[in-house]
Amino acid sequence: MKQTLVLIPGVGGDSDLWQYQINHLQELTDIKVIVVDREQLATG
């Protein structure tokens, strides 16, 4: 059973970094990507 890795793009790094992580970790983990915009983060 694989562990789940949750990625939240836009919080750190850029799209190339996120895509690199997805490409290289997808065989080891189940990756879930949650898209949250900065306004939503600011208002909670």
TrEMBL record:
Organism of derivation: Legionella donaldsonii
Protein name per Swiss-Prot or TrEMBL: Alpha/beta hydrolase
InterPro entries, alphabetized: AB_hydrolase_fold
Domain of life: Bacteria
